[in-house]
Design a protein that fits this description.
single chain, 851 residues, alpha+beta, 8-stranded antiparallel beta sheet, 6-stranded antiparallel beta sheet, 17 helices, globular
């Protein structure tokens, strides 16, 4: 155990306070008596550091993270984890009668200084803030602020309990335990045992695979993060199925997991003793683990209220050695939710016999880094742009999902604020403005419960806010000088992409045309060619002028003509808008529009075409942001955006084979449709059929499925074989249906959090109206069996498939009516159960085995 001097040496003004406090909680779990003594030391020293900062007037500073700042005081004010953990520790120490009057008085002063109703909404930040407020109110009920602290904590609780779930489907690890803890502090035991809460708890329970693994489709860890939350659910409800899930996740350790997970499963010889140590109290209170029913399903967020389809899980049996696969369905996420707003259809978890074969192990934002269907310009690097930039004198089609603005559209109950509230001390610079700001900030005040602020309008998540009256449209052009500091008010950044992705050496020239809305009602041109200069307002934010009186300049007509003009495009003969974008930001806003649209049933995308005249081969992304009525969001990008509306999602089962299907409308372009059919056999073979019907807007684009695997040690023309788990001797074969006109390839993909995976793909150039069918066969096998033997295809000839090879290994066929036949047949080296799988376009399917 540490000494007081060692603990004191950890204290630094810029440290992450949450880690300092987490150490105290870990020490208490390791040794209750000595751990409590050390926790008391930590709380006392931290409180003294806060008091010194306050008494000496130590100032804060802008920080890119809430978790550390210029001083301990600043971090305690901004870091939600720190506030919750600090008061949880204080609460535990009070219950142990370890807190003297002097420390209690100092903590009371600290609470009055750092606690203000902060963020609202059913997310981890709000929960930790609310825990701090609720516990401060409990111990300091006599201070004037206590009533407000309680009101705020109750409001956050209702943000969760009212709809009955969190809105962060990709970040559950930090959500499920603190909201239960908040409920217990507030005396909500009855509500925590209600059917509404149980339905949400079961959703999290069913993320746990038969072998105890769980992968989240976002920034939130793996199974180890579920253990304490599931244990708490079991304790509160008395339901043994939650205990089963907690124990399975506990035994799985960190295997299969997150970017920073290094250890594996708990060794079998240690499982009995490990379970006894971790879960001893459950035996004492009479709760035994119970195997839950089969979990193959379409899972919904808010299962008792909004019922938003979120995941498609194939899990025909809970028996430990059975396969498990999970796909991300959600069609309405924005990065605010720690989910992946643009990764529909993503296979984020695939395991067989307890071995993880495909996983999502961190926050990869772009669809080209996921296991989904990718569509892009035919001349772009596929599937993700690492080195090949944009071409000059080439027309690109930009298209963005407009539906995300439902979460940021104000309403009668939720009022938009134009300045950062004094009580909101999270990350980034303070915003001060009015309704003319571009873009408008995302702060919403609940008139019925005005404690703290929401970062989005909750009515959007509830399925409301579907009507949008388009009054203005803005295209915001950014020119980032190569290696510059970019001292201008940027309206965009490539979130969690730390490359210099659009470096320029001076002003950039480009052309724009075809500004439109698109959806099931077709295409609605917003700005006709003859109106490109009418009702147009141009605003310049010159680089280097930030913080001065010249930071923002609305240009007069003569000044506009320096940067904007109408010209004839030499390639098409059309009248188009020419923009000269200087270093900084140039906003073009068309006013006087009045189009009221339904964001799901009528028009759900906004788009335009663009051509760069300047040499932009270094541009890996397109630095143009779209605003509607001054609104945008950090996930509303113009390039490579999947978008789409989920029209249907189903799962069915025959024996221990399970099938799932998801259908999207308006994916990548407003007039394209995509259906992903997938079948998981009881042997663990995963079959995926992607059917894409490109619309007119997709003519000439290229697309196909992408799978993220380890380095493919063996490959053929259309198959790739890699080692999935070297220690266990397991490999994965990915076999694409061979088709003329298709390109099969591999791309090295180093990810954000140190992953070194490879993207393999099957792509073709799209023709409007011609359905493309892509077939992917994923086959786990022993690593000592060669990929050639599993595929049954050597490719020592110029044919795609030699007729003599059709009866060996893997064989695929696509019939004229869309029926897909897949056969697995033994080879000399590989001896699987012979399978014949048939998947029809209407969703009918059949698996036949020949022993």
């Amino acid at each position: 155990m540490l000494t007081e001097e060692q603990i004191r040496s950890e204290l630094k003004p810029t440290m992450e306070v949450r880690r300092y406090l987490s150490s105290a909680l870990n020490e208490m779990r390791g040794d209750e008596t000595r751990g409590a003594e050390l926790a008391l030391v930590r709380v006392r020293l931290l409180t003294e550091a806060w008091k010194q900062d306050r008494d000496h007037g130590v100032q804060g500073q802008a920080s890119h993270t809430a978790h550390s700042g210029a001083s301990i005081r600043q971090t305690l004010r901004s870091c939600f984890f720190s506030q919750g953990l600090y008061f949880q520790l204080f609460d535990k120490l009070c219950h142990k009668n370890l807190v003297d009057n002097e420390l209690k008085s100092n903590v009371s002063e600290l609470a009055r200084d750092i606690l203000n109703p902060a963020e609202r909404g059913a997310n981890n930040r709000s929960f930790f803030f609310a825990i701090g407020h609720a516990l401060a109110s409990k111990w300091f009920s006599d201070v004037q602020e206590a009533a407000t602290w309680t009101a705020y904590a109750e409001a956050v609780w209702e943000d969760w309990y009212g709809p009955g779930d969190c809105y962060e489907p990709g970040y559950v690890a930090h959500n499920i335990k603190p909201i239960i803890e908040l409920g217990l502090i507030l005396g909500k035991t009855e509500e925590l045992r209600s059917e509404k809460a149980l339905a949400a708890f079961r959703r999290y329970r069913d993320h746990i695979s038969p072998s105890g693994l769980a992968i989240q489709p976002g920034d939130g860890g793996t199974q180890s993060a579920y253990v304490d939350a599931l244990s708490l659910m079991a304790e509160i409800t008395g339901d043994g199925t939650f205990l089963w899930a907690a124990q399975q996740a506990f035994l799985a350790g960190e295997y299969g997991g997150y970017y920073n997970a290094n250890s594996g499963r708990i060794p079998k010889e240690e499982t009995v003793s490990a379970l006894e140590r971790k879960f001893a109290k459950f035996k004492a209170i009479g709760i035994e683990p119970v195997l839950p029913p089969s979990a193959g399903q379409v899972q919904t967020m808010y299962p008792e209220t909004y019922k938003i389809p979120d995941r498609l899980i194939l899990n025909p049996s809970r028996v430990e050695d059975k396969p498990f696969a999970a796909f991300y369905l959600n069609d309405r996420m924005e990065t605010l939710h720690h989910g992946h707003e643009d990764n529909r259809g993503d296979l984020y978890h695939y395991e067989v016999n307890g071995v993880m074969y495909i996983k999502r192990s961190g926050w990869q934002k772009w669809v080209g880094q996921s296991n989904s269907l990718v569509v892009d310009d035919a001349l772009s690097e596929f599937p993700f742009c690492y080195t090949k930039g944009l071409l000059s004198n080439h027309w690109y089609k930009a298209s963005s999902s407009l539906r995300m603005l439902r979460d940021f559209n104000p309403s009668e109950r939720y009022i938009q604020l134009y300045s950062t509230p004094d009580t909101f001390r999270h990350t980034g610079e303070t915003v001060v403005g009015d309704e003319t700001m571009m873009p408008l900030p995302h702060f919403f005040l609940d008139k019925e419960s005005p404690y703290g602020v929401h970062l989005g309008n909750p009515e959007g998540m509830a399925g409301d806010n579907e009507l949008l009256t388009v009054r203005t449209v803005t295209l915001s052009f950014h020119t980032f000088l190569r290696g510059g500091k970019h001292e201008f008010p940027k309206s965009m950044q490539w979130y969690r992409d730390y490359r210099e992705v659009a470096p320029a050496d001076g002003p950039v020239e480009l052309l724009i045309k075809n500004i439109h809305l698109g959806g099931s009602k077709g295409k609605l041109v917003l700005i006709e060619p003859e109106a490109l200069m009418k009702q147009l307002e141009v605003t310049l934010y010159e680089d280097g002028k930030k913080g001065t009186s010249e930071e923002k300049k609305v240009l007069n007509e003569d000044e506009m003509l320096k940067w904007v003009s109408v010209v004839t495009d030499e390639l098409t003969g059309e009248r188009v808008l020419k923009i000269v974008s200087p270093p900084g930001r140039l906003d073009l806003t068309w006013k006087g529009l009045h189009e009221t649209v339904h964001l799901t049933d009528e028009y759900h995308r906004i788009g335009y075409d663009y051509l760069y005249i300047s040499d932009v081969r270094d541009y890996l992304r397109t630095p143009i942001r779209v605003f509607v009525n001054g609104m945008t969001c950090r996930s509303l990008y113009s390039d490579h955006q999947q978008g789409g509306i989920l029209k249907s999602a189903v799962t069915t089962k025959q024996g221990e084979d399970s099938f799932g299907s998801m259908e999207y409308e308006g994916v990548y372009t407003h007039d394209s449709c995509w259906t992903r059919q997938t079948l998981l056999t009881e042997e663990g073979v995963l079959l995926v059929v992607d059917r894409l019907v490109p619309g007119k807007e997709a003519e000439g684009l290229a697309g196909g499925p992408v799978w993220q695997i380890n380095r493919p040690d063996e490959q053929g023309l259309f198959w790739f074989d890699s080692v999935a788990d070297a220690e266990l001797g397991k490999s994965l074969m990915v076999y694409f249906h061979p088709q003329r006109g298709h390109e099969f390839g591999v791309q090295f993909q180093p990810k954000l959090w140190h992953d070194k995976s490879y993207a393999i793909y099957d792509k073709t150039v799209l023709v409007a109206g011609r359905e493309e069918t892509f077939v992917s066969v994923l086959v786990p096998h022993e690593a000592d069996v060669s990929g050639i033997s599993v595929a049954g295809k050597k490719h020592f000839h110029s044919l795609i498939v030699d007729p003599r090879e059709e009866s060996k290994g893997i064989a695929t066929e696509v019939l004229s009516d869309g029926t897909v036949n897949i056969k697995l047949q033994p080879t000399d080296e590989w001896q699987p159960t012979p399978l014949h799988v048939r998947i029809q376009k209407n969703g009918d399917w059949q698996v036949t085995r020949n022993q």
